[in-house]
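comment on this one:
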Amino acid sequence: MKAIRYVMMFLAGVGALTACQDLDELRTYAPESVVSPVMGTLPSQMVITPDDFEDVLKFTWAHADFGVDTQVNYSVEASLGGVEDALSLVTGVAQNSTELNYETINGRLALPVEDGGLGVPVDTPTEVKFYVSATIGLNFAKYYSSPVAVTVTTTAAERTYPMLRVVGDYCGWSHGDAQKLFSFSGDEVTYEGMVDFGEKAANGWKISAGQTDWTDSGNYGLDGSAAAPVAEAASMQLINSGGSSDIKAYSHRFYRIKFNTTTMVVTKDVTMDRLGVIGSATPTGWDGDTAMEFDAATQRFWVDLTLVDGEIKFRADNTWGDFEWGGADGALALKGSNIAVSAGDYRIYVNLNDSANMTYEISEDDYGTEIGGGVTPPQPERADWYLHGQTIATPDWDETAMTGGGTDAYKLLATEVAAGSGFLFKTGDGSTWMGPAASYSQSPYAVTIGQAFEVSTDKVDGLIEAAGTYDYWLLPKQGVAYVITAGEKPGVVADAWGIVGNLTDWGAIGDFAMVAEGNYFVRKGIYIGANYEFKIRRGNDWNGTDVGSESGPVDVDAGFATGGSNITIGADGVYDIYFDETAGMIWIMTAGSTPSR
């Protein structure tokens, strides 16, 4: 199956560009005296193949003269006949030159007329006439240059749409790496598309009409002198100005964004942090979904999955809510019906870019292949948890695998960090992100080196204020994390009883200190899994004072005599642990309960 290619066309902004002109003054120009633009030299022949789609053709021209002091708007057009049949390749250009890549040119020339193209026959040398036209507004005539004929050999093309680019921190503020909004109607007014911001939506983004850089005729952002939009605003009023401000109101990963170039209002349509496949045909049935990947080149979701006979649907964020889709025959609908499937190995695609034409595809041929063609190389095994943030090695926010696991203590040791570095934690499949709890008053939250801080999926970014070499520890089941000066142990408290086990990497992070409470030493609110083993010891050291159970798993809410074996419970839960040193007794109590003697 061919990957869908969305090919660049500039925004047609000629209507807006004359809005500030005095129409009475403009109408004083003499049409018979207008000097038309003059197209510059072009190559006599062009042979376009997929291998040179990234090559660029530069169009230049001598300016038109309308005899009035106003901005002139240029378009590059192409025709198989005369100007009456000309098709715009790029519009709304204020300068006297522009560049288009071969893919853009091929898409406009080779696409059939009924699909919005010029209908140049593919693989056949054909004379195409190129023009530059000039106008001073929608209410005024166009003036064309003389044609420049080029013999063009096109290649097969898929339908293309006018587009704008969403440029921001998520793509390094690079136009070349930016995802797009598409004018599916072709009106070059209404645009929409699904954009993956990763974890950087709140870092800022804008909308650009430029292909490779910002242009004065299409630089859409917030009005910095107006009140800032509320978080997750349903819509925002933008301005078109090189001085416009970045948009920072959003904080999730995926958004379907809609933008109207006439009203200059941007709206969010779909909001989610992941899209998943669920259903009786999937490995997890209706109990949970399988997360889909996102291909930024086509802005489609995809996943390779082995299905059984049954049904599937698609939903956001592993829950039934506002965003769930079903359908039939390749068409998706919000809250649509279950999709019947047959057993087999498939690649599943979901395209949500066009709200009026959402689609899915289930392909046997594409299973196990690379998105760009070929066989997908074996994927490296993913770690359970990753540090996602800024380090000396990853200054632009990237992931670094943490080690440990299975019993809650994950670590990334001896990591060099610059001052002012941010971070979060995420699971290997990207389904769960954790950071300092949003209940902290700071955003981002500046962690105190060596002290535990609460972590949650309701999070803010963590911030390390001072440069240094640090150990990161994450205990997701306990809901805590540490950033520690490399090699130190934050849990070490001299002469205190503490809990040590695989829940603390057997003391590598230090022990969970217990506090005196009446006749007991107590530690409350500890998550203990069925496969956890632990003991109680003094001074964070194996000095002969460690105590455990006499043998085997112990009962919850019942005291037991101390012994030399590791303590196991056999049931996941959150517990309060009581130790009576004098009596030689330990109680593992359901959280909130106290021992009964």
